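## retry 2 of 3
previous attempt timed out at serialization; input unchanged, resubmitting
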Amino acid sequence: MHAVLFFLFFLCSTVVFAADYEAGKQAYLKKDYALALEILKPLAEQGDSQAQITMGLMYDYGHGVEKSPAESIKWYLMAAEQGVPLVQHDIGVKYFQGQGVEQNYLEAAKWWEQSANSGIADSQFNLGLMHYRGIGIPKDYVKAAKLFEAAAKQGHGNAQYSLAVMYAFGQSKTKDYATALEWFNKSAEQDIAQAQFNLGVFHENGYGVDKDTNKAREWYQLAADQGLPEAKKKLQALGNIKTTVATKSENVDAGNKVVPTPEKTTNSIPATVEQPSTSNSELNLSNWLRQQAADNYTLQLGSVINENDIVNYIKQSGLGVKAGYIVVNVNGITRYTAIYGLYDTYKNAEIAFSELPLAIQKAKPWVRNTGILQGILQ
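## retry succeeded, writing output
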């Protein structure tokens, strides 16, 4: 009998907390930060992870409170410790880059390992990169390859590129140009300039394919069009002839997660990982968002620190013309935030959430007020 009463009490308490959080969230979206703080802080202190995340945001942006990176990360850590994978990933980024905390690679690796185990492709890639380069942890090519492969199978362009590099050098298994070519092609399909460049190297030198200078030129041209210096030098050496775009492999993974990487380097058939920077004016909705009413809503699908990653994510999402990204500034850091649709009420935005592909729903898009987003546009 006592067990039944306890269960009923717990169930009723959960419903009350959910209702309270919704009220706090609505206050936050309406920019009534004083009311949001009054409602959400007690919930956060009692262990509500969503309230903890919102408290973290309030201190991140200085919404109703004085900006405090230390206070912000305190609340984020509470949510991360409850097993929220996306928050765990962001905590890893903060420790890796020293945002609001002292830089600590071991802590970054710890949090990325937890979110990587939950299937977050950006964490899998970043942790793989740490193992690959021995950043704060011992080099381990076997672990790096497993992590790169896990992210690559989700369609992560830079992970596909990194995995190709490892096959090209035989760094976790025997050298395998055929498999390297497969992953380079997948990565090149996502406009990863270093992958395009290395396909040029493969065709120029006959690594796993017949030598074909014309094809090599085509791939070098694609990489050079993105500003890759090595590709421009190769074109000069071969005779800078503008050619048609190379015919690419059609066997492309339609993954759903593309994310930021900690750092970049370059090399010919590099043993390191390149993070090229590209732009796409058609997908950049920053100016469009500025023109919208401040009391509308949109769905935030994700936010990263590399523009090319967000462009690739949107292109792979299959969401069509309703999807794009905005450029925002968070604590002095430029971020690229994917958004979807425009809605006159919060309720309509929630309905639209249910219409998204299941893979994107699992990433838990966030209903955002346009006025709040306008306030952090770069």
